[in-house]
Design a protein that fits this description.
292 residues, mainly alpha, two-stranded antiparallel sheet, 10 helices, 57% helix, disordered C terminus
């Protein structure tokens, strides 16, 4: 896969660190809503969680497209890290989450530092990862006693995380990730605590994604023995990547006041054909697409 990034438009990185007024107005409005999808007792039948999620992603995409892509990738990385403990718990030997998280990390760094040069990713790397996710999905389905919905929706998060790498699939793929996390079982099963998880996304993850910063707190489900260790590990990783991004932006601004303006293009070598992963055991959402 080849991605070509083109520079630049003027942007002061210190402006990026300020709060977006339009985003804050939207967040304040959404805070007051109650949603049936989050199992809240008193809900407004006119409130649509899906519509409000889309509205937030639209605000994150208001600026030039490469900056928007960076924000989408950053949100995807945070959510992927929040889902990683699910697969660690049910299958500690599954290396896919760490591989895909590392891919997101490297891709973010390559975009921010490419300076208009071509970004190369090993041919068929994304296809291979997607095929591995498909194989894992099938193996868990046939394994007796497996918590299939939790595992399947966690795998779906990582599948869609790969798709976010392609800009024109980013918004749709993040919406699928948010479904798996906020309404599905990717982070935890059951209905209790859904609003708390949503508030963390809205009040911590969204502003952090806008500024390319770590969230103020990192969400880890209650009950895990190594909860604090997970929090520390994920927060350190996000801080490391964020610091690298901001160092590059600051150095770039000193020299030419530039930042990326247009997203790279991915050639036809990846994401070529689509087949469906059948939702064989539960029907909580429409079938997913697997690219191979």
């Amino acid at each position: 896969m080849i991605l070509t990034s083109t520079l630049f438009t003027n942007l002061n990185p210190y402006e990026l660190n300020k709060n977006s007024k339009s985003l804050q107005v939207l967040v304040d409005k959404i805070k007051l809503e109650s949603y049936q999808e989050l199992y809240e007792l008193e809900t407004d039948e006119n409130a649509s969680l899906q519509d409000d999620l889309k509205a937030v992603l639209e605000v994150l995409g208001e600026k030039d497209q490469t900056l928007s892509h960076l924000r989408y990738l950053w949100m995807t990385l945070i959510l992927s890290l929040a889902v990683e403990p699910t697969l660690e718990y049910y299958d500690p030997s599954n290396s896919l989450p760490k591989i895909i998280i590392k891919l997101l990390e490297e891709f973010l760094q390559k975009i921010i530092s490419s300076s208009g040069k071509t970004i190369n990713i090993i041919p068929n790397q994304l296809d291979q990862l997607i095929n591995e996710i498909f194989k894992s999905h099938e193996s868990y389905f046939h394994k007796q006693g497996a918590n299939f919905q939790e595992i399947s929706e966690a795998l779906d998060v990582f599948y869609n995380a790969i798709k976010v790498i392609k800009y024109d699939q980013a918004v749709e793929s993040i919406l699928e990730i948010l479904y798996d996390c906020l309404e599905g079982y990717a982070i935890f099963p059951g209905s209790y605590g859904r609003r708390e998880l949503f508030d963390w996304w809205l009040e911590d993850v969204v502003p952090a994604s806008y500024k390319l910063r770590p969230p103020k707190s990192f969400y880890v489900v209650e009950g895990l023995e190594n909860k604090e260790e997970i929090k520390l590990r994920q927060t350190r990783l996000l801080k490391k990547i964020s610091d690298e991004i901001w160092l590059y932006l600051s150095e770039s601004n000193k020299h030419n006041n530039y930042i990326f303006s247009t997203p790279g293009k991915i050639n036809g070598g990846s994401f070529k054909k689509s087949v469906k992963i059948l939702d064989r055991e539960y029907h909580s959402k429409s079938p997913q697409l697997v690219y191979s």
